[in-house]
Amino acid sequence: MASSTGLLVVSNIKQLGKSLRAIEKYVNSLYIHLNVTGSTSTTSPTPVPPPPVWGRLISQVYANSSSYVGNQLDLRVLVSPLRPGASGSLKLRQPVDLIFSDAHHPELCDRLRADLNISKPTIFLEDSAISDLSAQQDETQPPKVYPSVVLGGTFDRIHLGHKIFLTQAVLRTCKRLVVGVTTSAMTKGKTLPDLILPVEERIARLREFLMDIDGTLQYEIVPIDDPFGPTQVDPDLDMIVVSAETLRGGQKVNEIRSAKQLRELEIFVIDIVESNVHDGIHETKVSSSNIRIDLLGTRWRRPHPRPQLPARPHIIGLTGGIASGKSKMGERLANMGAYVIDCDKVAHDVYEPGQVCYERIVQHFGQGIVSPDGRIDRSKLGPLVFADPKELQALNGIVWPELIAEVNRRLDVLRSQAEVPRVVVLEAAILLRAGWESNCHEVWSMIVPPGEAVRRIIERNNLSQEEAEKRLASQVPNPEIVAKSHVIFSSQWDHEFTQKQAERAWQMLTKELDSYQSSL
């Protein structure tokens, strides 16, 4: 199916599941136009009630849609047509290819086709002209709307929970919506913070969604470095929209405003949308954290072509920080059929007496690092280099050129064999720092939170907290690893979940290589 956008005129909420299942094969992006007047005519429409009364219905549309068609359809429920006095032509950000209607309202659909310049006829899913939306008004909600409403959040990869949250705020303002978007200063404690999109991109996506559902409002979307943002200083705000779990934050906003002689805000609380995944790893609510978890073991970004490398073997550079679980991931991939070159073991070989590296390392660091059997004692060498960046740089300058030369020799041997391995995994902690990614078709990486890495180093290497933190500080930081990776794993949960990530990535790669092979 080609990427296409549709608009569904909804008159019968009970038909929504049936309508979405009928439509999903035609479009992958869908606007929802709620026919709240229930009218087939544009000349004498029923008076439109204030927008907040439709909040429960819209939340229901979003929440139910995922059970009908999963997350395959990007749904956006239009708010601008729900405003009293809404007239004039409907303008949307994306061109619409097809209009669908779950009831026979040809005049409304023809007007929308004219507004959106659609030549194809409306697809009527039902012949009836009955509407049940008027019965869906939420009379328990105060109908009042406010000139200025504010809300805040991370808004990483907009999901249905965000759509409900944002729409409830849009419904309750008639002029201006202020949105605070947290910067990286506030997201370090979140799950997989290194996979959160840059704040500029999150703001752009947010603006696109808000302009899509209601282009009549003024949007002020600002980055915030603290939990309170513009609420601390903006005298013109009237209402704050919060979720049930951030209600205390809304109350704290009013305490701050009161202390500064600013008008306290009305607080509107929305319920959290529950997740249908309960595995002890994903959060129990619909969240961006769950989306980031689901990105593990998938194609994070497409690799650039490497025409200088032979197509076979397909070389994966496997990297990650200390104690991130690289070696275990290497074992998992080996069990699935990859040929693994462990660069740490290759390094042991080039450290051996008689090798070029051995002589140069001993000459630079002295006989104190040599054990009684004549070999380099890495437990003595380690503290010297991890305590002094210049010494670490000196060691790398000696070892890295010999190491990559030896790796390339081993790759040449593999390529000369009658049966060349299909996939070779080059496991190397230093892959990115040494610039070896150009020797690989793609980079797969392991990340864990810094605190977890330090805990593992202390436990595994029997080091002090300070020594462990020094070791970690000498590594490539997670954001830099993520920026150069094509597939990302995290071992911060149980072994079974890390195995699932590995299997997902291996199946994806196998499918891609099969497809490439069949195209030759």
TrEMBL record:
InterPro entries: Cyt_trans-like (IPR004821), Depp_CoAkinase (IPR001977), P-loop_NTPase (IPR027417), Rossmann-like_a/b/a_fold (IPR014729). It is an enzyme of class 2 (transferase). Its main location: cytoplasm. Residues 150-292 form the Cytidyltransferase-like domain. Monomer. Its EC number is 2.7.1.24, 2.7.7.3. It is found in: Cytoplasm; Mitochondrion matrix. Pfam families: CoaE, CTP_transf_like. One of its GO terms (molecular function) is ATP binding. Keywords: ATP-binding, Cytoplasm, Kinase, Mitochondrion, Multifunctional enzyme, Nucleotide-binding, Nucleotidyltransferase, Phosphoprotein, Transferase. GO terms for cellular component: mitochondrial matrix. The keyword Metal-binding does not apply. GO terms for biological process: coenzyme A biosynthetic process; triglyceride homeostasis. This is Bifunctional coenzyme A synthase. Pathway: Cofactor biosynthesis; coenzyme A biosynthesis; CoA from (R)-pantothenate: step 5/5; Cofactor biosynthesis; coenzyme A biosynthesis; CoA from (R)-pantothenate: step 4/5. Bifunctional enzyme that catalyzes the fourth and fifth sequential steps of CoA biosynthetic pathway. The fourth reaction is catalyzed by the phosphopantetheine adenylyltransferase, coded by the coaD domain; the fifth reaction is catalyzed by the dephospho-CoA kinase, coded by the coaE domain. May act as a point of CoA biosynthesis regulation. In the central section; belongs to the eukaryotic CoaD family. It catalyses: 3'-dephospho-CoA + ATP = ADP + CoA + H(+); (R)-4'-phosphopantetheine + ATP + H(+) = 3'-dephospho-CoA + diphosphate.
